[in-house]
């Protein structure tokens, strides 16, 4: 059973989330908080597995809550769930330790799956969130970037930048990796052979200095590489 704590300053939102999430056999909403300070207290007393965290709250906001949680051992996985659409909020939340970033217009079924994904140790970004971060990264290609759905597992190592600059094609592949696409799907999207995609993926991993494609996606988001 996944223990979920909801932190949002709107009672209607909290009640709506609780009503829906409590219908899931593997989810248990153990508490609700109206601000970050209350959320921190409930984290201590209830030990939730996943914290659904709004960014804009009174007393202590979402970023402040993330900062306080960052110094704690064994805290919950934090899934930001916000109505704020500013792409500049995404990267700081990830750097502060958020394991996911979604907007409140998300489909209910997607939210449930996101909670499970985050609880399982992976990182998940809304399409708009990942696309905005990747497209704003230094050296990112102009124009729209492929959206990101369930992305990558636990935080990769933090190290230096890539060994060599990514080519334009490698940046496209990286964006599609971040969107959760398989090699076959990337090949179809770029109209190239799957073997060619595998080569590009290998080059991306080598240049970023990470071990697998999922680490590459999160590394790109957190370090502004694309």
From TrEMBL:
Residues 159-224 form the HTH luxR-type domain. Residues 3-119 form the Response regulatory domain. SMART domains: HTH_LUXR, REC. The keyword DNA-binding applies. Transmembrane segments: none annotated. This is DNA-binding response regulator. GO terms for molecular function: DNA binding. PROSITE patterns: HTH_LUXR_1, HTH_LUXR_2, RESPONSE_REGULATORY. Keywords: DNA-binding, Phosphoprotein. Residues 141-164 are annotated as: Disordered. The modification 4-aspartylphosphate is found at residue 54. It holds the Pfam family GerE.
